[in-house]
């Protein structure tokens, strides 16, 4: 079992990674000061619950655990769902000393963490991620839900008590989810660690086939990179913004496709868009741009924008993105493999052109 | 102008009190690092807006200010209202650098502060209280809304950039609101400062007639007491709970009366209930109990519970209160004038009896 310690201003917590470590859950709860008398609300979704809810409930047989299952997918990151869970929690007597356990992927982590952050002005929560993608969202304390007008517009910064990552839960993931999750691992390499990028390129096949050894290493490295950045800038005042690499256009594609594109699938296109734009601005060589395409294709990712998407509409959605300050266009662009920078003043003309060039 | 500085773990901010100081608003914004380019969303209600919204808008004529007016009263502390404000904010281009300005009483402070705490994971907000009651809610960072099953069950701890308290705004308050607000001032005296209680008893009439000098002093003292307690215990792990003095039964009465009782009116009954219970337990003398009644009556407060309220139902609502830990009944009870203590193990029998004795 690998342990990474995350330190934030007010709170430190461990992320534990390993195969078949769910049986450590009761011990970890006790160590965290969560006694068997504590009421625990497990929040999961309709995909994960049939596979792993009973496994977790069995581990908690000495605790006062109840569960709530939401529909799978981004549709549950909604204010209506938050309200339903809170009603359920009140009706079942959750108080300030109670605990929420998120069992699922990024959506469940974001939703359950947000509920924990606002229920009775904040109760404790723990995370048991069940996807590769969740390696990203389970570190950094960003929790939240979507608004009809855009993703993640409602939320908080709120840290879990611990994250327990049982990699054996990943083996039931659909192929597309595996690929989508690995894109965020790629992202972590591409923003901060050239060596890790080279390792990823060499191990693409093992990772796509969920070799447990390779996956464990990749998750650990990805989490480490993210944790280092988050520790430096908890509230996203500066450097942390590089974690949004590929996400500006990524969110646009998710929105316009009505979430038919998975998060990682959309971010892959967003990263390639950033590379192409950087090459156009002269910050990235043509060879490096080509390496981006090669790497993403090795991980079976598309790198083009559906040709029916209106470029002006994409621009408008980007301008509404909360990552833009005072209406200025602000983007994370690569300047080398394993290195990015934040740019405030990009001529919208280049963005427009690059979007058009990517359409196919 | 009086200034009190509030220090919390992550954040320090001033509370400024004085008559006709609203013209200090632009200067204060600039001093806080809020430039004239910043988008400011003023949130107010249908009672306050006709009186003071234009006054504030005029002060902000060099800023990019917009406003949103909600119905007056606790009915606006609802998730539906939060959603509407957020939609309005997105549509009007509020981004992470924008600011929310709460112009109103406690409801507006709680609602606007909560919206600020979850909009794009938290944006800055400032408060311009327009009621006496708001002297309480504007210090301490407790923001939030109600749930159909209970008050303040959804919320955050979130601190404003500053509080600007123009006491000239208080002169348009209805008499019942003045009385209700003064109850929270009384509460601050009764939990922590015997001398202040004696001053309040002597100055009851001036305060009820809104003598500006007396009101300014009372607000300053009340805020100081609250600030000292809040600075000691920001997240209500311990001592801060004494601020809930009178509120356990107070919330029950607000709920059962469907908010026909104003907050302070209900808290006054709650404080007298606590005094009577403390006297029954032998912690308060009969004379002190009588002083409580005398003091509350001097401030024109009722001290009885409507006889039609069902005692069992009141007990059940109290048990669901988030101030109870692990299902235990936990109350703040006076042990002298100007002194209270938190008690964990009160025999429900005494609570039941005292409730019955207060019915009239």
From TrEMBL, chains A, B:
Zn(2+) binds at residues 184, 247, 263. InterPro entries: Dehydroquinate_synthase, DHQ_synth_AroB, DHQ_synth_fam, DHQS/DOIS_N, DHQS_C. Residues 181-323 form the 3-dehydroquinate synthase C-terminal domain. Residues 68-179 form the 3-dehydroquinate synthase N-terminal domain. Its EC number is 4.2.3.4. Catalyzes the conversion of 3-deoxy-D-arabino-heptulosonate 7-phosphate (DAHP) to dehydroquinate (DHQ). This is 3-dehydroquinate synthase. The gene is aroB.
């Amino acid at each position: 079992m690998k342990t990474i310690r995350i330190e934030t201003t007010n709170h430190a917590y461990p992320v534990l990674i390993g195969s078949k470590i769910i049986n450590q859950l009761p011990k970890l709860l006790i160590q965290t000061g969560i006694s068997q008398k504590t009421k625990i609300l497990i929040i999961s979704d309709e995909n994960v619950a049939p596979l792993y809810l009973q496994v977790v409930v069995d581990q908690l047989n000495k605790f006062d655990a109840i569960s709530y299952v939401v529909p799978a997918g981004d549709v549950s990151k909604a204010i209506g769902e938050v309200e339903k869970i809170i009603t359920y929690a009140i009706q079942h007597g959750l108080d300030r000393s109670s605990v929420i356990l998120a069992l699922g992927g990024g959506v469940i982590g974001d939703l359950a963490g947000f509920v924990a952050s606002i229920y009775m002005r904040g109760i404790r929560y723990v995370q048991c991620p069940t996807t590769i993608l969740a390696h990203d969202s389970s570190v950094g304390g960003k929790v939240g839900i979507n608004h009809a007008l855009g993703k993640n517009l409602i939320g908080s910064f709120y840290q879990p008590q611990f994250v327990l990552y049982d990699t054996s839960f990943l083996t039931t993931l659909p192929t597309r989810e595996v690929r989508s999750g690995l894109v965020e691992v790629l992202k972590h390499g591409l923003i901060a660690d050239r060596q890790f990028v080279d390792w990823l390129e060499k191990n693409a096949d093992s990772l796509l086939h969920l070799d447990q050894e390779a996956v464990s290493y990749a998750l650990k490295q990805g989490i480490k990179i993210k944790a280092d950045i988050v520790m430096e800038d908890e509230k996203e005042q500066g450097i942390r913004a590089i974690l949004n690499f590929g996400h500006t256009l990524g969110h646009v594609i998710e929105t316009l496709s009505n979430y038919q594109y998975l998060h990682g699938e959309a971010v892959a296109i967003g990263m390639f868009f950033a590379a192409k734009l950087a090459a156009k601005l002269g910050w990235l060589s043509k060879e490096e741009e080509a390496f981006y395409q090669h790497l993403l294709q090795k991980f079976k990712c598309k790198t083009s924008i559906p040709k029916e998407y209106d470029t002006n509409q994409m621009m408008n959605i980007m301008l509404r993105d909360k990552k833009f300050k005072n209406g200025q266009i602000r983007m994370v662009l690569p300047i080398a493999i394993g290195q990015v920078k934040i740019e405030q003043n990009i001529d919208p003309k280049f963005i427009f052109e690059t979007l058009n060039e990517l359409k196919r």
